[in-house]
Every structure is written in C-alpha cells, then in structure tokens.
C-alpha cells in the first residue's frame, strides 16, 4: 500500500472515532432541524472519561417554561456532576409559548420535535462516548407528555422514560386520543400529585386539563406490554406517597406509578423562588435517576 493510501485510511479511521472530548461544563448547542433553528443546554459532567461509556439524559420542560428554568428548578447541572451522566435540556417552540408536540397535545411544539430529539442524541453519540444502553428522557407536564410520546416511537433506542404530572392521552369524539401504540418496549416511571389542579390526577377531579389520569396512563402502558393491570397501590413514603408496580414484561420493560397524596403541579422537590417544594414528600429527580439506573436497555 502506498503512502497516500495509508494516510487516507488513517484519516477515515479518525473520522469514524470519537473526537477529542470537550472539557466538563455547560454549553449552549444549536441545531437546524426541518429548516428551523433549535437549541439545547448541554452539561458535560465533572470527571467525564472519554474512554468509558456514559449515560445521557434528555430533560424536557413544561408548557410556557424553557430549558434554563427547568435546569434551575432541578439543578440539573449539579445532578449531572453528581450522577456522572451527560444531560441535554432542549428548548421547545415557539419562543413565545414554548412546548412540545406530543401527538394528542398540540397546543405548542413542532411536528419535527421527534426529529429534534433524535438529532440531539445523534450529535451526542458522534462527539461523546455515549452508553447506548442508557439513553433516557424525562419531563414535566407537557414535557412529560412528550417523554411518553418519545417512549412510544423511540422505544427501540431509549432504555426508559419518566414523566412528572403528565398523561398519555385526552378524551376525543367519545373515545381517547393517545400517544401511538409503542413500537418497542421501554421502561416507564410516572409521578403525579393527587392535588394537581393543572393536569388532572384522575378524570373528574378538579383540574384545568381533563386528560387521562395517572392510573389510566400507567395501565395504558401495562396493557400494551402485557402486564397485569389489577395492581393495588401500597404505601411508599409514610403519609406521603403510594406506589403501583406493574412488574416486568417478558422483554424486560417495567411500569411504575408513584402518587403523591399532597403533591400539586409543582415539580416534587423542585427549587422555586419561595424555596424547595416539600408538600409532595418525595424528590422527583431522586426517584427518576434511581429508576433510570435500575433500567438499562436489556
């Protein structure tokens, strides 16, 4: 082989390998998806080791919120450093009313939101040593709806999804308009407060959005994964929360619902102007990260 061919082969090998890693820290990333400019906040954790596969978490804000607010409420940069995972926090559209197109819920967002998420993961896989068995998505409210939507259409890629105060569908024309039937099985964690007056815990209770309730949504996933739905709630945190665990499917997917008795629409354990949310009695991020750690892709 002559020298020019050797050089060409070396260049091709370098192009296929991971580039030199960026230093740990916070970055603003920009992308063009479906001819629209999109952006997300990226945290690379302290101690990131390019030689070791690293989990990635995509975090989706709620309706009218934004990436920076969601980052602050859950202190996701600190959690990224503590947990040793890369976190991407995208901004929804439009800028004046940010949110996500979750299929059944289209008040905001863009029809290319799914492609946006895929492009984020593709970019991170291209630059960092991402553990492809540990790619996760979670969100709050409309972001939770989008997380469930992504679980249904990207289950072949995602290991687990989680939602705080979300739903999988809305009543429509005498039936239900839901996220699509899952293409693949993915583990799902649902967290919801029984005092939520924005996204209803159970249809008929007082709330702005009379969507499918938390138990209905959990049972929807269980039904599609062939899991038993007659699962009783048991005490999880004394005087604070109950849990329904639907078990594990033959393909390794689990569905779990944690219901806070006093939780509202605020993110459980989130940091707000008046201090840290405490009515719920649980810490949403701690529950989500534990669930993610316990559920890599089979």
Strand content: 25-35%
CATH C-level label: Alpha Beta
The total domain count is 1
Strand order of the largest sheet: 1-2-4-3-5-6-9-12-11-10
Helix content: 25-40%
In CATH terms, the superfamily is: Alpha/Beta hydrolase fold, catalytic domain
**CATH topology call:** Rossmann fold
Quote the average pLDDT: 93
Q: What is the end-to-end distance?
A: 43 Å
Q: Which residues form runs of ≥5 with pLDDT under 50?
A: 3-18
Task: Specify the number of helices.
Answer: 7
Structural class per helix/strand content?
A: alpha/beta
* Radius of gyration, whole Å: 20 Å
Notes on the structure:
By secondary structure, the chain is of the alpha/beta class. It is built from 7 helices and 14 strands. It has a single domain, classed as Rossmann fold (3-Layer(aba) Sandwich), CATH 3.40.50.1820. The longest helix has 15 residues, at 113-127. Strands 1-2-4-3-5-6-9-12-11-10 form a 10-stranded mixed β-sheet, sandwiched between helices. A two-stranded antiparallel ribbon has the order 7-8. It has helices at residues 3-16, 67-74, 76-83, 113-127, 142-153, 214-224, 284-294; strands at residues 25-33, 36-44, 54-60, 86-90, 130-140, 160-164, 169-172, 175-178, 187-193, 234-237, 241-248, 254-260, 271-272, 275-276.
What is the topology?
Blueprint: H1 3-16, E1 25-33, E2 36-44, E3 54-60, H2 67-74, H3 76-83, E4 86-90, H4 113-127, E5 130-140, H5 142-153, E6 160-164, E7 169-172, E8 175-178, E9 187-193, H6 214-224, E10 234-237, E11 241-248, E12 254-260, E13 271-272, E14 275-276, H7 284-294
Parallel strand pairs: 3-4, 3-5, 5-6, 6-9, 9-12
Antiparallel strand pairs: 1-2, 2-4, 7-8, 10-11, 11-12, 13-14
């Amino acid at each position: 082989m002559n020298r020019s061919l050797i050089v060409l082969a070396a260049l091709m090998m370098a192009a296929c390998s991971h580039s030199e890693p960026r230093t740990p820290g916070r970055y603003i990333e920009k992308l063009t998806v479906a001819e629209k400019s999109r952006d997300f906040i990226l945290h690379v954790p302290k101690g990131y080791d390019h030689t070791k596969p690293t989990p990635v978490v995509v975090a989706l804000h709620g309706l009218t919120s934004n990436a920076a607010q969601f980052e602050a409420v859950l202190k996701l940069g600190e959690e990224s450093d503590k947990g040793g995972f890369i976190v991407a926090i995208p901004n929804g559209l439009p800028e004046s009313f940010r949110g996500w197109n979750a299929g059944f819920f289209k008040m905001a967002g863009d029809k290319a939101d799914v492609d946006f998420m895929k492009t984020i993961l593709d970019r991170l896989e291209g630059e960092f040593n991402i553990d492809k068995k540990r790619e996760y998505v979670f969100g709050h409210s409309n972001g939770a709806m989008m997380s469930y939507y992504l679980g249904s259409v990207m289950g072949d890629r995602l290991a687990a999804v989680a939602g705080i105060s979300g739903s999988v569908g809305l009543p429509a024309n005498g039936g239900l308009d839901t996220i699509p039937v899952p293409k693949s099985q993915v583990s799902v964690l649902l967290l919801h407060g029984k005092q939520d007056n924005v996204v209803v815990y159970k249809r008929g209770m007082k709330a702005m959005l009379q969507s499918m309730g938390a138990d209905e949504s959990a049972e929807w996933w269980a039904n599609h994964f062939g899991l038993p739905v007659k699962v009783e709630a048991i005490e999880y945190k004394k005087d604070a929360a109950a849990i329904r665990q639907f078990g594990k499917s033959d393909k390794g997917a689990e569905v779990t619902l944690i219901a806070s008795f006093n939780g509202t629409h605020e993110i459980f354990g989130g940091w707000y102007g008046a201090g840290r949310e405490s009515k719920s009695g649980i810490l949403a991020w701690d529950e989500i990260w534990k669930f993610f750690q316990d559920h890599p892709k089979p």
